[in-house]
Specification:
Layout: E1 11-15, H1 24-37, E2 42-46, H2 52-56, H3 68-73, H4 78-81, E3 83-84, E4 90-93, H5 102-105, H6 115-120, E5 132-136, H7 143-151, E6 154-160, H8 169-182, E7 188-195, H9 202-215, H10 228-232, H11 240-243, H12 248-271
Parallel strand pairs: 1-5, 1-6, 2-4, 2-5, 6-7
Antiparallel strand pairs: 3-4
Helix pairs in contact: 1-12
């Protein structure tokens, strides 16, 4: 039964692609920071056992006593797991390698695909009044990524502007369709964002053309460039918007955040 006395929850977006090295964590951190910069209240869920999003936002291992593993296993409520970051309006639930055993440890749980969804629906989330929840998924289509998609309203797919970029995307799209049909009918693809784009490179231009030909309006207009500042920022435990606010990477993620907000507004107007 729907509790109509509760305020509408945040929009939940999974950042997913089963290929590694395509910019999932970079996109999660910097899209979150760009949305926070314009006053949105953002929660980042680090769902990757590598914990790179946590490290990239300055959450050291000694400050990860309560993690996403505790949240999905039911050992912690959201208020105990959520931490403030050094970025205004940006919070995080950090991750550790404990998550790497989730596939095995949750196999006997009948609700194993719904654990994150149920955790994020707890009334303890209401006090935070988040506008967006961004989930940094691991580079695989395992039980953690499935949990993210079951919990999410939409999926953002980072796509590296390199050879074979579109290979494997069909499997991700199939997984999204299966989850839509079996566990989360509202799930939609928010968009595909081209990352590591070099406009001087013919290959990048060809990947862009192929992506737009095959996926049409699903591809965001904004593209994330290859940018040394984007690569350097994680070693300073900060989003690129903090590390170098005027860099091309910062400009691109601000544009992506505005495009996401604009698209959300258009969809809400259509429903209205």
């Amino acid at each position: 039964m729907i509790d109509h006395s509760r305020a509408p929850g945040p929009k939940i977006i999974a950042i997913a692609n089963q290929k590694g090295g395509v910019g999932k964590t970079t996109t999660t951190i910097n899209l979150g920071a760009a949305l926070a910069e314009v006053g949105k209240r953002i929660l980042l869920i680090d769902l990757d056992p590598q914990g790179n999003a946590s490290t990239g936002l300055g959450i050291g291992y000694d400050n990860r006593d309560v993690t996403t593993y505790d949240l999905i296993s039911g050992d912690a409520v959201p208020s105990a797991a959520i931490q403030k970051t050094n970025v205004a309006n940006l919070w995080i639930v950090p991750a550790t390698t404990d998550l790497s055993s989730a596939d095995i440890e949750l196999i006997a749980n009948e609700k194993r695909s719904f654990l994150l969804r149920d955790a994020l629906r707890q009334t303890g989330m209401d006090a935070f009044a988040f506008d967006y929840v961004l989930i940094d998924c691991p580079p695989s289509l395992n039980i953690l990524t499935v949990n993210a998609m079951v919990a999410a309203d939409g999926v953002v797919v980072p796509l590296q502007s390199e050879f074979f970029a579109l290979e494997g995307l069909s499997q991700l799209m199939l997984t999204i369709r299966e989850i839509r049909e079996t566990a989360n009918a509202k799930l939609r693809i928010e968009g595909v964002v081209l990352t590591m784009y070099d406009k001087r490179n013919n290959l990048s231009q060809q990947v862009e053309a192929d992506a737009r030909d095959n996926l049409g309006d699903l591809v965001f207009k904004t593209m994330i460039p290859r940018n040394i500042r984007l690569s350097e920022a994680p070693s300073f435990a900060a989003p690129v918007l903090t590390y170098d606010s005027q860099s091309k990477g910062s400009t691109a993620y601000r544009a992506l955040a505005q495009e996401l907000i604009l698209n959300d507004g258009k969809r809400k107007n259509k429903v209205a």
